[in-house]
Design brief:
Keywords: Toxin-antitoxin system. Pfam families: CcdA. This is Post-segregation antitoxin CcdA. Residues 1-24 are annotated as: Disordered. The protein is mostly helical. The chain has a domain at 21-69. It is 60% helix and 0% strand. The protein contains two helices and no strands. The radius of gyration is 23 Å and the shape is elongated. The chain starts with 17 loop residues before the first helix and ends in an 11-residue tail after the last helix.
């Protein structure tokens, strides 16, 4: 998820074990960027999970409708 230039950064403290910080520096890992990406992925995973939970009944009903009635306008499909 690309960063929006209009949204300011939020400063947050992060505690790492000395060994983790040392290893990250040794391998040239940017801890701030790595944490930012990990948080973005975690937020997206939670958002996806909430969407699935919220719309599970609709998706189930729609799939049952497709099983019974087939695809809408299927008779007009020219491929496959």
């Amino acid at each position: 998820m690309p960063r929006s230039p209009s949204v300011p950064d939020c400063t947050t403290d992060l505690s790492l074990p000395d060994e983790g910080d040392k290893d990250a520096k040794e391998f040239g890992i940017n801890v701030s960027q790595t944490c930012e990406r990990a948080i973005q992925r975690a937020v997206q995973a939670q958002t996806d999970h909430q969407w699935v939970s919220r719309y599970a009944d609709f998706v189930r009903a729609y799939n049952e409708m497709l099983e019974c009635d087939g695809l809408p306008l299927a008779q007009y499909r020219t491929l496959g």
